[in-house]
UniProtKB/TrEMBL annotation:
It comes from Shinella sumterensis. Keywords: Plasmid. This is Arginine deiminase-related protein. Coiled coil: none annotated. NCBIfam families: citrull_CtlX. InterPro entries: Amdntrnsf_FN0238. It comes from the Bacteria.
Length: 306
C-alpha cells in the first residue's frame, strides 16, 4: 500500500499523571462530561494512554510518549491543540483560549522534534493570545494535506484572522463554516465533526448550518475521489468523527476509540475498511474530558533524521 501525506507514521502522545476535570473549558465544550475528581480518575487515564500507545506501536506506528507530572495542565493529554508539524520541516505552535491550556506548551517536545526529525522552522502564533486571536491547532482545523485545505468550524477557539495567517504561512486554503448541534450549541472543535483520510472522509454534514456551504464542503472533500461517509449527530456525540489515519508497517490504519467504533454501523465500517484497518483504542475516562483519540495524537509529518 502506498504511503500517503495524509497519514503520518509517528505521533506524539502525553501521558497524564494527575488527569482531572478542566472547569475552565467546560462552558463551550458540550462533549465534556466529567463531574468527579480524584486519584482513581487519574490512574484510569494514565492506564488508558499507556495501553493506547502500546496498541499503536504494535501496528508499527512510532509513538513518542511524554510524561506530564504537573497538576496545573488538566488537558495535557490532548497535545494536538498546541502544536502541529508539516512536510518540508515546518512546525506551528498555536494560541490557546484557556490559560490552563497555554501551560501545555513544552520546549522538550519541540527539541525532540528538532533532534529526531528535520525541522526547518518553528512558527509560534502564541503571541496572538493577548489579542484573543485563538487557533487551537488540529482541533480547530482538520487539515487535508493532499488537497491543501484547512477545514475549520467558526468558534471562540478558531479565529478567522489566525486561521488566515496560518493558511498563508503553511500553504493551505482556509474553508471556514458554521456548525452546531440540534440544541444550537456551536461545535467547539472541528476535529469532533470530521476526519479526513487518504481515500475517505467521515463527517457529520447535517450539523453544518448553511446548506450551500455544506454542499461546498462535501464537494471539496470528494474532489479527488474520496468516499464521503456521513455521520449522524448521535454518532458525532460518540466521537465517531474524532479519528486519525496513520501509517503502520502493514498499511494504513484508522485510530479511533472503542466508543466511536461501536457508534459506526456495519455499512460505515465496511466502507472505511476498504482503505484502512480500524484500530480501536479504549479511552472512556479521557473521553469524559471532551476529546477522544484524535485529540490525544499529534501527528508527525516530518522527515526522520537517519
Amino acid at each position: 500500500m502506498r504511503h500517503s501525506s495524509q497519514a503520518p507514521a509517528a505521533v506524539v502522545m502525553v501521558r497524564p499523571h494527575h488527569f482531572t476535570v478542566n472547569t475552565e473549558t467546560a462552558a463551550d465544550n458540550s462533549f465534556q462530561t466529567i463531574s468527579d475528581h480524584g486519584e482513581d480518575l487519574a490512574l484510569r487515564a494514565y492506564a488508558e494512554i499507556t495501553a493506547a500507545a502500546a496498541t499503536l506501536e504494535s501496528h508499527g506506528v512510532k509513538v513518542h510518549l511524554f510524561e506530564d507530572e504537573g497538576t496545573s495542565t488538566p488537558d495535557s493529554v490532548f497535545p494536538n491543540n498546541w502544536f502541529s508539524t508539516h512536510a518540508g520541516g515546518h512546525v506551528a505552535i498555536y494560541p490557546m483560549k484557556a490559560e490552563s491550556r497555554r501551560r501545555e506548551r513544552r520546549s522538550d517536545i519541540i527539541e525532540m522534534l528538532k533532534t529526531e526529525y528535520r525541522v526547518q522552522d518553528v512558527i509560534d502564533y502564541s503571541g496572538l493570545e493577548p489579542d484573543a486571536l485563538f487557533l487551537e491547532g488540529t482541533g480547530a482545523m482538520v487539515l487535508d494535506h493532499i488537497d491543501r485545505v484547512a477545514y475549520a468550524v467558526r468558534s471562540d477557539r478558531t479565529n478567522p484572522i489566525a486561521l488566515e495567517r496560518f493558511s498563508t504561512h503553511f500553504n493551505f486554503e482556509p474553508m471556514a463554516f458554521e456548525a452546531c448541534d440540534s440544541k444550537g450549541m456551536p461545535i467547539y472543535h472541528t476535529n469532533v465533526l470530521m476526519c479526513i483520510g487518504t481515500d475517505f472522509a467521515v463527517i457529520g454534514t447535517g450539523m453544518i448550518s448553511d446548506r450551500r456551504r455544506r454542499e461546498e464542503v462535501v464537494g471539496r472533500l470528494a474532489r479527488f475521489g474520496r468516499r464521503i461517509i456521513d455521520l449522524s449527530e448521535e454518532q458525532i456525540g460518540r466521537f465517531a468523527g474524532n479519528a486519525l489515519e496513520l501509517q503502520g508497517t502493514e498499511g494504513r490504519i484508522l485510530a479511533l476509540s472503542s466508543t466511536a467504533l461501536d457508534a459506526l454501523d456495519a455499512g460505515q465500517r465496511a466502507a472505511i475498511e476498504e482503505s484502512v484497518r480500524l484500530v480501536a483504542l479504549d479511552i472512556p475516562t479521557i473521553e469524559r474530558a471532551g476529546g477522544s483519540v484524535r485529540c490525544t495524537l499529534a501527528g508527525i509529518h516530518l522527515t526522520p533524521r537517519h
